[in-house]
Design a protein that fits this description.
The protein is an alpha/beta fold. The protein is 41% helix and 16% strand. The strands form 3 sheets. Strands 5-6-7-8-9-10-11-12 form an 8-stranded parallel barrel, surrounded by 5 helices. A 4-stranded parallel sheet has the order 2-1-3-4. The protein has a 3-stranded antiparallel sheet with strand order 13-14-15, sandwiched between helices.
Length: 467
Amino acid sequence: MAENLLFLTGKLAEKSLHKVLAEMQPAPFEYQIAQLGISVAALMTPEFIARRLADARGADRIVVPGLCRGDLDALSEKYGVPVERGPEDLKDLPQFFGRGGKAPDLSKYDVSIFAEIVEAPQLTVEGIVAKAESYREQGANVIDLGCLPNTPFPHLEDAVVALKESGYLVSVDSLVPDDLLRADKAGADYLLSLNEKTLWIADEVAATPVLIPAKSGSLPSLYRAIDAMLAKGKPFVADPILDPIPFGLSESIVRYHRLRKRYPDISVMMGVGNLTELTDADTTGINAMLFGIIAELRINAVLATSVSPHAASAVAEADIARRMMHAAHEDKRLPRDYSDGLLGLHDRRPFSYTEDEIADIAAQIKDPSFRIQISEEGISIYNRNGLYRDIDPFRLYPHLRVDDDASHAFYLGVELARAQIAWQLKKRYSQDEELQWGCNVTRKDARGRVEHREASLKEKRAKKGNT
């Protein structure tokens, strides 16, 4: 017997909800819709729902609008069935229920991120720990201290000890044997990098070495180092080295493929910074492609850097990419509809409503408050006095008649500017919310968006009397 779902909505969204659910049929559920007498569904609160909805109407599950804030546990207890949030935009219901009505599980991954502090010798110990904390917040598993050529690092040991005391796994990256020996004595967990000529270091340290070819691009050299470590019975990680464009990228990817085919069970690392740092392109897409390859080749670790300003979010992007590609690989599905964290400039479904659908909503408006939406054709702004459309906010302004209300004019100017940017870039626009830029916006900013949205909703409720 199919599950019976009860969808809660408001006056303005009811028609669209009926249309979306009807177009989803046949769906793996039966459904009914309860319109609770509120104009804007996003303004619902759990308390409002409890007052307006007497019972679950025989449903097995109740779905509230995604923008409905507050604790839903009390509602689940009241109605005796699960009460869950749907997507923030009802037009996303088909994708939402394509996964059984649940968000994709991005809690798992099988790739460790080594985040390199490239300028470590030039930072104080306190500065190193602070940068490490930033990288940990972005998803790093190991903090890598990069040693610079011909640059003294007298506080290397102190830095390793401070990081270990703060709970970090630590690697040290240097081609100078003395640096690696000092790092091991201080308690480093990994040493980057050894080759067949410096394998003697592996016999003198407890840390796990990362092996690279003695000569750039030489797989035989790497194979000899790997075979020697296998004979010793000691743990290691192998890295054939990813080369930048146009200095052998495709051939280096082939090396990773050959390495994995020859040694199916060893740990392998890929340094992704040679692409993210050395290519003038948005790093979100570069990381998505690289981690797709990483998932297919079962690569176990990446060395990520965040030096160039255009690669400022590279570690956070790596975290999202590894989770998304792992989930897609496990599900045997294309990596779509898992996360929008790597969609910085454009959205897959930017225009939720057509011009005709916006016109239908506008015809229901009975109050002076302006609503703004975008469609493929441009920007729409409307209230009870009319619906106006254009692609240029300056041409819309004369219709708004807010010359005597500076605060209102400022608000509409901000929202119309956002709407224009969203329309130009083909991004999703939702009034009273900042545009979404994926993980290019920091988590602190993301919390700010939530606080801003909550404040906006409270202000709307006050104006509308919460009806």
